[in-house]
Structures are given as structure tokens and as C-alpha cells.
Amino acid sequence: MPDVLEIPALMGSAIAREAPAWTIGRADPREIDAYRALRREVFVAEQGVFAGDDRDAADDDARTVVLVARAADGTVLGGVRLSPALAGRDIGWWTGSRLAVRLDSRHAGGIGPALVRAACDEALRLGVVRFEATVQSRNEVLFRRLGWISWGDVEIGGTPHVRMRWPITRIRDLVAATKSELGALLAGLRDDASHALGGAGFLGDDGAPVPGTDVVAACDAILPAIVEHDPAWAGWCAVLVNLNDLAAMGAAPAGLLDAIGAPSLDVAQRVVGGMRAAAHAWGVPVLGGHTQIGVGAALSVTALGRARRPVPGGGARVGDDLSLTVDLHGRWRPGFEGRQWDSTSTRSAAELRELGALVARAQPAAAKDVSMAGIVGTAAMMAEASGTGAVLDPAAIPAPDGVAFGDWLTCFPGFGMLTADRPGRSRMSSPLAATARIGTADARPGVRLRWPDGVETDAADPLATGIAPR
């Protein structure tokens, strides 16, 4: 039987009239046993939904999380479980099920609704991207009041049920926070000259071809909070992100310029140390720049490179395969867990340069490095610049073991390149990185995720930046 949230009259009042005499948290082994006993009491003895026992495969999945409402004396008053929808690799698709509340506690301040809300919060912490439940039709209104949306009907055991989804918008929110204001902000610049913001074919690209030359220039700034928290890492990243921008256009790096603002000489020295280590690793000289001490933290780097045939970020066409080449080596950067994957600081200089040369060697139709907008956000920018849409298959996206999938989709991965080519013609390949076809460029604007059950969910809006108007 599918994962079902069986809750006939189990929810209780949604409004707590006084401070509840219970708390909600993850269950310990004793509480899990009590929760399972409560489920049998409700779903087998009381309702007859199941014969004998309601256990299923989710109970045996080590990843399953049980949340319980517990009284002050430790009595389990109710519970709910969350589990991956599929066996095997976690791709961020989870379900909530087996919500149950004791008969004598169903009007104790809204335990049921509180468990549903707690399950939604837990799903976000687990990095879930698609979170669903199947509920009896008479409870649809209640779930709608809690923010859920209906997306299909199904009959289970002769009883009408509704498929419901908790809307998780972390990908769309990330794109909006990092990219959505760019079009309006830069519209005047875009109209100033034919080669402004990269010019035709490169509008809003990772770098900008310098007119009349084979030079490609890129410029990125590092968030002040990163400079303040880890100055050496900020210096390393300032080089890394700019060289990734050049690499995405197939450009060979020639030199770097920096602009540093630091509250003290010590901070400035640590920033320079990180930049110098990265410059040595990639074999790119720092040509000059500007430094100011006694000011707020600030850091930006400009990278110069050369490419006879720069690869555009907006070169995808409808029907193209979208592929991801990403270095899965490494770990979360301490202090930036869930946001920055460090795949580069433990690579050798030869390995870093090999990865940086992949696009130049492969010459795909389009390429963009995975930026702070994450894998899906980067796909949205490529689609926007190309005048296409995109559909991505989460199950095909390479990811490190043990990493929450939602975090992986929205992090900066160190080295990741999204490329587009005609079907079956991707030429990106390296023993240092995983390459997989993860989707298709299509004619429908925006980015959707296509799940193993064939369902598509919207992930990013058509105008990721607004720089390349349709």
C-alpha cells in the first residue's frame, strides 16, 4: 500500500488555547516503539485500515525519521514519520505518513496539526525538495489550511484519498535572491553599446569577450561575511570563481587583478595568502590591484584569459542534452556546511588545471559554471540566455554520498560545469569528475524537475536574471 497519512478525525483543534502540555521532537528508540504501538491501536484496532499490522518498508528504512508529541511525563501522545519515497539513493523526494494521535489527546491543543507542521520543518532540514502525503479526502480542507496543495485523487482500500504536496521553494527562492534583480539593475548598461554585458551571443555570460581581441575578462566579488569569517578561504575562492568563469568559456587564464578592503593588516595578509596559494595552484600570476586597510571587508578579483572561440553560456537549442560535469571529491567547507562544497583545496595543481581545461577541449555548444545559484539555478540562467526552457532529472544528477540532496542542488560545488550539446554528442569527460546527462533543453520556459514517477514540478521561473529578454 502507498505511503498514506491516515487521519480520520485524528487531528484535533488547530488552535491551541493555552500553552500545550506537550513537546514535539525526534523519537528515541523507546518512543519509536510506543509510536508503532499507537499506530496499531489506531489503524488496526480502531479503524480497521490494516489487518493485523500496519508496518511497511518505510519502517525498515534506516533513513526514516519519526517525530512524536510527548507529554511532560514522557508519554507518547502522537507521532508521524518521514521517509524517502524511493529505495536507493536519496534524490530529495520524501513522503509523510502514519500520522496518529491518541484517542484521549485529540483535543489537547492541536497535536495533529502541530505534527504536520513539524514534519514540514523537518523535511526542509533534511534537504527535501519534493514532500508529499496521501490523505483521506475529508481531510483535504484541513491540509489546505496548513499550506498544502492537492495534485491528484486516488482510491485506497475503497476509501477516496487525495495526493497532497507541501510546496518547497528553496530553489526558486535562491535564484530570486541571487539573480532576479540583475535585469532591471543592468538594463541601462545593456543598451549602451552592442558589446555591453558581453554583447550578442554572450549577453550576461560568465565572462565578457573584449571586442577586437581574443581576450576574455571575468570579475567576481566575495561576500564580506566570507572575508570576515575565513579570510584565507575568501582569497582562495576569489581566484577559484573567476577561473571557473574563464573555464566555462573555454578560455586559458593569463592573469589576475585584485581589489581588497580589510579592517586590519592581519585580515588583508590572510586574504592575500589565500589568493597567492590559489594563484600558484592554477599557475596564474597576480598582475596587480588595489588594497585598502582599516575599512570594511571587501574582496573582488578580475581574471583575464584568452580564447579563440569562446563558448557561450546561451548556446543551447531546443532538444539539446544538458549535462553536468562535477567534482564530487571533497567535503563541506567547515563553517559553510550545506552551502559551499570544497572540492578544490585538496586537489593538486595538475588536477586543478586539468579540470579548468575541460570546456576548452570539449567545445560544447554552451557551458556555464555552477555558481551560487546552484545546479538548477544555473540551468535556469542557461535556458534564459538560450531562449529555451529546461527539464532536469533529479535521479540523474551526480552527488556525493551522504549529502542532503536539496543542499547539493543549491550549493556552490567548487567545480561544476553545465553544458549543452546535440543529443548524444557531449564531449565532457575527465577521471577527476563525474559527467552525466541530467536533462533536456525544451521549448517551455522555466525549469522543471522530472521525477522517476513521471511527475514534473516547477523549480525555477523563466526569467532567472532578466538580462536576456525574450
Indicate the topology.
Blueprint: E1 22-26, H1 29-46, H2 57-60, E2 65-71, E3 76-84, E4 93-101, H3 111-125, E5 130-136, H4 140-145, E6 149-156, E7 159-166, H5 170-178, H6 182-190, E8 208-209, E9 215-222, H7 224-229, H8 231-248, E10 252-262, H9 265-282, E11 286-293, E12 298-306, E13 321-326, E14 331-332, E15 341-342, H10 349-356, H11 358-362, E16 366-369, H12 374-386, E17 389-392, H13 405-410, E18 416-421, E19 434-442, E20 447-450, E21 456-460
Parallel strand pairs: 4-5, 10-11, 17-20
Antiparallel strand pairs: 1-2, 2-3, 3-4, 5-7, 6-7, 8-9, 9-12, 10-12, 13-18, 13-19, 14-15, 16-18, 17-19, 20-21
Helix pairs in contact: 8-9
Task: Please tell me about this protein's structure.
The protein is of the alpha+beta class and 470 residues long. Helix content is 29%, strand content 28%. The chain is built from 13 helices and 21 strands. The strands form four sheets. A seven-stranded mixed sheet has the order 1-2-3-4-5-7-6, sandwiched between helices. Strand 10 (252-262), helix 9 and strand 11 form a beta-alpha-beta unit. Helix 8 runs parallel beside helix 9. The longest helix has 18 residues, at 29-46. The model is unreliable at 6-17 (pLDDT under 50).
